[in-house]
Amino acid sequence: MNPDNYRYYEGLQKCFGLYSEIGKYSSDEIDRLDALYKSLARQYTWSSAVKRIPLDFLQGDNFREAAVNYIKPLLTKGIPSLFSDLSPLYDHPGKADILEQLILELEHSIRINGRYPDRTEKEPPSTLLWTLFFLAQHYDRRGQYDVALSKIDEAIQHTPTVIDLYSIKSRIVKHAGDLIAAASLADEARCMDLADRYINSESVKRMLQADQVALAEKTAVLFTKDGDQHNNLHDMQCMWYELASGESYYRQGDLGRALKKFLAVEKHYADITEDQFDFHSYCLRKMTLRAYVEMLKFQDRLHSHAYFHKAAAGAIRCYLKLYDSPLDSPAEEEDDTSKTPSQKKKMKKQRKAERAKKVQEKNEESSASGISKSGKRHVKPVDPDPHGETLLKTEDPLSEAAKYLKLLQKNSPDSLETHLLSFEVNMRKQKILLAFQAVKQLLRLDAENPDSHRCLIKFFHKVGSMPAPVTDAEKLVWTVLEAERPSISQLLEKTLSDANKIFLGKHEDSLMHRVAVAEMLYTLDPTNKLEAIKLIEDSSNEVVSTNGALGPVMEWKLKDCIAVHKLLEKVLIDQDAALRWKVRCADYFPYSTYFEGSRSSAVHNLLNDQERKTPVNGGASHPEICQNTNSFISNGKVEAFKNLTI
After folding, report:
1. What are the pLDDT digits (tens) for 58-89?
2. Residue 644, phi-psi category: left (phi > 0), alpha (psi -120 to 50), beta (remainder)
3. Residue 187 three-state SS
4. Whole-angstrom Cα distance, residue 183 to residue 206?
5. Distance between CA 563 and CA 512 in Å, rounded?
6. CA 510, 513, 515: angle at the middle one, nearest 5?
7. What is the pLDDT of residue 131?
8. Given a cut of 80, is residue 431 above it in pLDDT?
């Protein structure tokens, strides 16, 4: 028996009647569970699971004692995954504060005495390093990025050769909002170990988050066959890369390439579905029935996988944006209508010739680079539509979006995003009942969500502004809506303005709820624009109370503040209010490049006074990848390793 298999303990708890799906237990059940795991710990002294599982249900001093006994040996051993192991405890009220106090006490004792508080033997120097490593991740999780960066910088100064330190610093800087510096740090970590595929992938992900797509592609192909085969990423069904690329292209407004990446992921799932047919006769012939049944169950839930959901949602968002902003601008259409038939024919030939020339150049590049490392020439299939231009020429983007929407509704019915996209698509298609169905699903899943409230008010405002029904079908739709409206408690005997005010009263302290109310206030009556802006600007960034936390923990999240700025700029269309919000958020998020914070790489580069050199082991064949042009830290240069001696 494997004493570290969590399923064994889950089954044992069920046998004793002490298992809860939601992890909540009475005080009597906690005492019985504690006694059970203490007896198991005496029997299986080497088991990690026996020590870890009680941390999920113990409380107060018992939790603290168990946490100390679990954490100290792992800090001594130097286990980098300790914080990942304990991160689920941060969702339990009060446990994060206990862990913070505990680790700070251990850090203080190691600094002063070189040992743990209750021990006489000295700890190795690496124990302080991994304690700082844990604290950096702890403060990152709590949003205290200044403290987190000071801890990780101290750890790097303590031992500058540990790659995990640079990876974690990259993650902290990313959470703080400086994506360019995060990509630079991740690339520096990659250059410290060029044979590590995981670190390479982490670096590529950071580059794509910073919209450095070209550099990300060059870095990613270092671990593909022959080193220059970008198509291998598609052949290997590297879906995380395609999704990250698609999101980057979408942010940059390149809808063609974004669609191409999202639909490539969808094609992978279609291929998986087709591949199952090879196994039906095989499994029956070989009598591997258990594996066969598992495969059938897997196929039933295939399209509910998170990667497919992201790809389908991304494709739908691209088609919605394409519908709202068609490719052919009115100015171009006017130019085309003003031309004579002969001029139009001539322009058409020129465009066709230009496209053919581009394809020929692409083929020449492919043939030139089609020589593998072994010297053999291989023929790569030429993509006839590398930029997704054909995908953008669809005549009905909403119909294309509806195809993927049906798959999401079937396989991800409990996702808010599914019904938000359904609402957006059906409102544009004037499918009133389907849009109302999406609103009801949103209210069922989370009626207090700002997006649910936004869709509810938008829908009935749209219905109220529609002309009186004329046809029998329109009258039938109207009858259904009138019959269903009383069943919605938020609108029972209330106007839309009253429902909006009541919603504000429930969530007056929440930024995103206030923003949703302000947006609906403007939607219901555009003359209330100044009142809506004031409602947003009067929001206060409350400090979350913590026990002994170093520095304030703000309630606002960076992504929410960015969404508010875009709302002020593009929906309420008030540049002055958007500028005031940007200046305000630059103080809250000093590392954010979006808000141009005082400590972000967009405003101030901390390495202006240092020479920028290629890292020692940056690689000869790809020097431009390892060139750290956007460096962020002064104690993270690989050149520091030159003087190290063994």
Report:
1. 999 999 999 999 999 999 999 999 999 999 99
2. beta
3. helix
4. 5
5. 9
6. 110
7. 96
8. yes
Neighbour count for residue 466 (Cβ, 10 Å): 12
**DSSP, residue by residue, 561-625:** HHHHHHIIIIIS--HHHHHHHHHHHHHH-TT-TTTT-TTSTTT--TTTTS-----TTS-SS-HHH
C-alpha 284, offset from chain centre: 41
- Of 106, 2, 95, nearest in space to 50 by CA: 2
Name the phi and psi angles at 526, rounded to 5. Answer: -60, -20
Residue 70, token pair as written in the block: 């679990």
- Token readout for 308 is 């497919």
The pLDDT value recorded for residue 552 is 57
The one-letter amino acid code at 264 reads A
pLDDT of 349 strictly over 60:
yes
Measured between alpha carbons, how far is 393 from 385 in angstroms, rounded to an integer? 12
Name the helix (H) or strand (E) containing 516.
Answer: helix 511-524
pLDDT tens per residue across span 169-224:
999 999 999 999 999 999 999 999 999 999 999 999 999 999 999 999 999 988 88
Taking residues 26-46, report their average pLDDT.
92
Beta bridge partners, 377, equal 371
Contact by Cβ (8 Å): 470, 497? no
Query: Mean pLDDT, the chain, as a whole number?
Result: 84
Instruction: Label residue 548 exposed, middle or buried (CB < 10 Å: 0-12, 13-18, 19+).
Output: exposed
d(CA 13, CA 30): 12
| Nearest residue to 230 via CA among 251, 249, 252, 214 | 214
Distance CA 409, CA 414 (A): 9
Residue 543's SS3 state is strand
Q: Is residue 609 predicted with pLDDT exceeding 50? A: no
Euclidean distance between CA atoms 200 and 625, whole angstroms: 11
Contact 524, 516 (CB under 8 A): no
The average pLDDT across 405-431 equals 94
